Amino acid sequence: MTETPLPLSVLELATVGSGQTTADALAGTVAVAQTADRLGYRRIWVAEHHNMPAVASTNPPVLIAHLAAVTERIVVGSGGVMLPNHAPLVVAEQFALLEALHPGRIDLGIGRAPGTDQHTALALRRDPKALSAEDFPQNVVDLLGLFGDERVEGGLAERFTATPAAVSAPRVTLLGSSGFSAQLAGQLGLPFTFAHHFGSPNTVAALTLYREAFQASPVLDRPYAIVTANTLVAEDDEQARRLALPGQLMRLSIRTNRLRPVPSLAEAADDPERAAAEAMPSNAIIGGPERAVAELRQLAADTGADELMVTASTHGVAERVRSLELLADAWGLAPAASAQVA
Asked: Domain for residue 339, yes or no?
């Protein structure tokens, strides 16, 4: 007997490589989304980052609209919208509109951090008083109310609705890399996604908090946890390690606040900081299909994840597409014709 494999999904950053334009990066994201759709990945999420030379994904709702229009069945969402940057009513209206255009295919993943520096956050929100994360729980509740959650009393929903005649709502998920959003997601009975790809050592602890805090809701009757993982698969382990080096150098540039586009393979091989990048502690899964599957299964077992979400960081889109193909085949994903959306 063959067990049904745990669902796999994709987190896509629309990375800009050396010598590439924003248009090139977004075309690459389209290719990744269409590949994931064809191969049977459950969902694809796009991130919100600002003022970063290596990331073209600045506006999730705009990118989600395009990706949903050029795919057929995969769920498309945000991983995530950084709520401190935006008024809840604006976010609710954007995602209610997306849900009306693509019913049952829209996720609203919400993050508590601004996802950028304070100057950029201020330019986005314009009011220094609005930059605090203290209002995050109330803003999340307001969003739920705007989408028609009957549990919510008062707040914005007393006077506003996200759209005049909704028949469905986007699936709201909280994202986090610590225990705060984990507990809030549990208390609200929402799915929770832990950013394991950040390299945090607190994955299991946060998921334990989520499950302990969980209260059944109209959304979920039991906890549902997604765990993200940096995952790059190639034909063999040696090739995967070579392809992973540009992504390692990008992460080093972020940690040292010397931002730049993702270097090419040739640039990465000769980069003076190559040794430092390769020596950084990492929980990335890098290797051939057999190794990648074994390590992802171990991650699922260690965390009790209901779903894994992979993100690949390298210079070329062809390599990212191939990584998804190799992983889907080795994992046993059902192709689009027989895949079930949930």
From this structure: no
Cβ proximity of 111 and 83 under 8 Å: yes
The structural domain count of the chain equals 1
Which CATH number does the domain housing residue 175 bear? 3.20.20.30
From the centroid of its chain, how far is CA 154? 31
The 10s digit of each residue's pLDDT in 194-242 is 999 988 889 999 999 999 999 999 999 999 999 999 999 999 999 999 9
Q: Are strands 171-176 and 225-233 parallel, antiparallel or unpaired?
A: unpaired
Task: Please say whether the beta carbons of 313 and 228 come within 8 A.
Answer: no
Q: How far apart are CA 246 and CA 262, in angstroms?
A: 6
Is residue 271 in some structural domain?
no
- Report cis status (omega within 30 of 0) of the bond before 332: no
Task: Classify residue 186 as exposed, middle or buried by CB count within 10 Å of its CB (0-12, 13-18, 19+).
Answer: buried
Integer angstrom CA distances of residue 107 from 22, 172, 187: 24, 6, 19
Domain range enclosing 177: 8-244+280-331
261 is a domain residue: no
Inter-residue contact 153 to 141 (CB < 8 Å): no
- Enter the pTM of the model: 0.93
Query: Three-state DSSP class for 246?
Result: helix
Terminal CA-CA length for the chain: 23
Domain-embedded: residue 209: yes
Q: How far apart are CA 58 and CA 88, in angstroms?
A: 18
Residue 210 has a pLDDT of 98
Give dist(CA 257, CA 16) in Å, integer. 17
Give pLDDT tens digits for 132-181: 668 899 999 999 999 999 999 999 999 999 999 999 999 999 999 989 99
